[in-house]
Design goal:
It contains seven helices and seven strands. By secondary structure, the protein is α/β, with parallel strands linked by helices. The protein has two domains: 77 residues; 48 residues, no CATH class. The strands form two sheets. The chain has a four-stranded parallel sheet, sandwiched between helices. A three-stranded antiparallel sheet has the order 5-6-7, with helices on one face. Strand 3, helix 3 and strand 4 form a beta-alpha-beta unit. Helix 1 crosses helix 4. The chain starts with a strand and ends with a helix. It binds zinc ion (ZN). Zinc ion (ZN) binds next to loops. This is Mut7-C RNAse domain-containing protein.
């Protein structure tokens, strides 16, 4: 869905927490980025006006953000796309992979005992193995998103 340019790593992680498929590769050059967006049909999010212009010339859909703060970037994006309508806790914020239900073994190995006793929904990332539950990385993000009106 999205491709965040190399200046937007934090924004990419928050978009994933919101549930949006967001690719982020820090070591691609401009040509590679444009090629990749075109091939995968991703919408480029960028702060780079030069890259924006090149993307438009190639017919790639893009969103421009001007702020260098990810909170303001989210607010800017929310004026262009509906960020509320997403499936939260469906994607790993580190790898962008879709989360799956965590197995008993993963829960036992990676979740603190008191959390195991108080929560009953656990998801894990098939790529990096990180385990997510309501109140882990998510609650903090939810508070922020609410504060931003998202
Ligand atoms: Zn992961």
């Amino acid at each position: 869905m999205f491709f965040a340019d190399r200046m937007l790593g934090k924004l990419a992680r928050k978009l994933r927490l919101l549930g949006f498929d967001t690719a982020y590769v820090s070591d691609m050059d401009e040509e590679e980025i444009l090629e990749f967006c075109k091939e995968t049909n991703r919408v480029l999010i960028t702060r780079d006006r030069d890259l924006l212009r090149k993307a438009v010339e190639k017919g790639i859909r893009c969103y421009y953000v001007s702020s260098d703060d990810w909170r303001e970037q989210l607010v800017e994006l929310s004026k262009k796309i509906d960020l509320k309508n997403s499936k939260r806790m469906s994607r790993c914020s580190l790898c962008n992979a879709e989360l799956v239900r965590a197995s008993e073994e993963e829960i036992k190995a990676k979740v603190p005992l008191y959390v195991q006793q108080t929560q009953n929904e656990f998801y894990s990332c098939p790529v990096c193995g990180r385990v997510y539950w309501a109140g882990s990385h998510v609650e903090h993000a939810e508070t922020l998103f609410r504060r931003l009106g998202l």
